[in-house]
Write a structure and sequence with these properties.
21% strand; two-stranded antiparallel sheet; eight-stranded mixed sheet; binds fe (ii) ion
């Protein structure tokens, strides 16, 4: 769950799968003269759509932070409420439909514990991202971390071939770009209720190339952002999701907090990206 608190004391709550769908909208339209599109396209987009579906296990329980009167959100959920097996169960669910997508999602989640293997980051939290605790980073480190069944899957997918491996690593890095862009919009790209300027660093331009670039995000209105260089295949492009505005009630019970979430009006959030 993504919980963004607003200056007026209310909060906008976005389900994790809706955050993932925002990421997937970028994925589906990524690529133009300057940036390579995803290859293979469908598995990479499919993985982006379901990359956080492990959160469904916890969202179904809908644990409420009764002190704040809101559902627990990412970054603030007590460890004992997390569902330990949810991410690997989700990877197996994806595996039955698309083994390539499953591997991408598995590497993504392993990477979240290792600063995304030192790849893509947002400048606004570069200091945090830079502190990698001495962990080995990069593609080889990511493949080292695979579990046996994932390593077998990688072999079956032909990822021992250098070209296929380079494509896979490009897709992994791109999933980080889409995830960070979505988090910027859904969660932490704001000062109060205004989007702030930021830069996505270390964005790869094509598979098999060492060239990395920066994409500047420059708000031009309450819900519009200029991206430069512009990476999408259509301009302007609308990205949208549904949020639930909730005005928290202090001293409400957990059940009352859950009822407030169920009753909250669904409110569309639409952002426009342009070059
Ligand atoms: Fe995510």
């Amino acid at each position: 769950m993504i919980v963004r608190e607003l200056p007026d004391g209310s909060a906008l709550v976005i389900a994790q799968e809706d955050h993932a769908d925002v990421a997937a909208q970028f994925a589906a339209h990524w690529g133009n003269d300057r940036f390579a599109a995803l290859t293979p396209f469908k598995p990479a987009v499919f993985g982006t759509i379901y990359h956080d579906s492990g959160h469904r296990e916890m969202e179904a329980d809908l644990p409420i932070d009764v002190e704040r009167g809101l559902p627990y959100g990412i970054g603030g959920t007590p460890p004992e409420l997390r569902k330990r097996d949810a991410d690997s169960n989700n990877a197996r669910w994806i595996q039955n439909r698309d083994p390539y997508a499953s591997l991408l999602v598995s590497v993504h989640h392993a990477g979240l514990r290792k600063r995304r293997y030192g790849t893509v980051r947002r400048r606004s939290n570069a200091a945090r991202a830079a502190a990698n605790d001495g962990q080995p980073l990069g593609m080889d480190a990511a493949f080292e971390d695979l579990e046996d069944w994932q390593r077998q899957s990688a072999e079956q997918l032909g990822l021992n071939d250098p070209k296929a491996r380079a494509d896979f690593w490009h897709n992994y890095q791109m999933l980080q770009v889409f995830d960070l862009l979505s988090l910027y919009l859904c969660w932490d790209g704001y000062d109060g209720d205004r989007l702030v300027e930021d830069t996505v660093e270390r964005v790869p331009v094509a598979a098999g190339s060492d060239e990395l670039t920066e994409i500047k995000l420059e708000p031009t209105g309450p819900r519009s952002v200029r991206m430069s260089p512009y990476p999408l295949d259509v301009a302007p492009m609308s990205i949208a999701t549904m949020a639930r505005p909730i005005t928290p009630r202090q001293d409400a019970s957990e059940l009352e907090g859950q009822e407030a979430y169920y009753r909250a009006p669904r409110t569309p959030l639409v952002w426009e990206f342009a070059d």
